[in-house]
Amino acid sequence: MSAQPARRRRRLARGAGALLAVAALLVWWVVPKGPPVPHGSAVFSTGVRSGVYHRYGDLLEEYLRRDLPRVRVSLVPSEGSGQNLERVATGAAQFTFATADVVAAYRRGHRTGWEHLRGCARLYDDYVQLVVPRGSRVRSVADLRGLRVGVGQAGSGVRLVADRLLRAAGVDPGTGLTEVLHGIDRMPDELAAGRIDAFFWTGGLPTAAVQRLTERFPVRLVPLEAGLLRRLHAATGPDGAFYRAADIPADAYGPTGGAAAVPTVAVANLLVTTDLVGEDLAEGFTRTVIGSRDRIGRVVHPAQLVDLRTAIYTDPLPLHEGAVRYYRSSKP
């Protein structure tokens, strides 16, 4: 009599154990398991060390290491958007920043790897800044004729937009002035020393290198008026769609800006990768860029403008499937 209840208890215990195992399996299957955890390595091509790209990337690296602990992230400085795209398109880097106009020109030229380029996020706008000594006679781009002008390094987005603006103003970049191919790491010092008469820069506001220049040398920002923008649109065809009218606020660089905002041209920055990068890694990078916005924005102010609602608009690049996955998961 006593053996039968004992066997019954053992059968019930085995049945309960089986039910618990099935329940645990169902919980594992149904309950969300969180975002994927990618692994491997990734090279991030940034920009000139004293520019916004590199500063942004330098701060972003900390959050990437925290959010993607199994990914080895390496930052590599560059001359700017042009070199960045070439590195990513050829596999020398996996992620980078680049302006939309440079991306469009790279794709239109069918340069190496153009068909593999993909966007992860639209970030913030770059503002074209034409900087001259405060006492300069230069009041427009056309006034640069015959002068020594910093136009950015050969592989930079600055060089592309500077040459386009000069042509739109009727100045031949090759013969109408002396182009000096320096980056933002050198142009402020060259201007202060009188070795150049002006320089172009495109970057978020404020750009630290320009800010530091204003604190030791009197400068002025030259307005890029609406008429010049219309000619720029006409001269650049489809690429002109990536340039828009904007204003540099009067207080962007303290007293330097004067009492009124300075009209200029703006172009969007994109976080770029390729379709050869795995979806988990692209999703993780995109999540960290969006999620770290406020913290990085306390130091690099343009990062504050990264917006989940507009980040998906990475024209002229299609979104990477990993980025698509992130944005879908982020819907309220």
Describe this structure in words.
Strand 5, helix 5 and strand 6 form a beta-alpha-beta unit. The chain has eleven helices and ten strands. With 332 residues, it is an alpha/beta fold. Helix 2 packs across helix 9, helix 5 packs across helix 8 and helix 9 crosses helix 11.
List the helices and strands and how they pair.
Elements: H1 3-30, E1 40-45, H2 52-67, E2 71-76, H3 81-89, E3 95-99, H4 100-108, E4 117-133, E5 148-150, H5 157-168, E6 178-180, H6 187-192, E7 198-203, H7 208-214, E8 219-221, H8 226-236, E9 244-248, E10 262-274, H9 279-291, H10 293-297, H11 321-329
Parallel strand pairs: 1-2, 1-3, 5-6, 5-7
Antiparallel strand pairs: 3-10, 4-7, 4-8, 4-10, 9-10
Quick summary:
38% of the residues lie in helices and 20% in strands.
What percent of residues are in strands? Answer: 15-25%
- Span between N and C termini? 62 Å
Helix proportion range:
25-40%
Which radius of gyration do the C-alpha atoms yield?
Answer: 26 Å
Shape: globular
Order of helices and strands: HEHEHEHEEHEHEHEHEEHHH
Q: How many β-strand runs?
A: 10
Structural class: alpha/beta
| Integer average pLDDT | 90
- The helix count comes to 11
Task: Describe the largest sheet.
Answer: 10 strands, mixed
Parts with pLDDT < 50 across at least 5 consecutive residues: 16-32
| Oligomeric composition of the shown chains | single chain
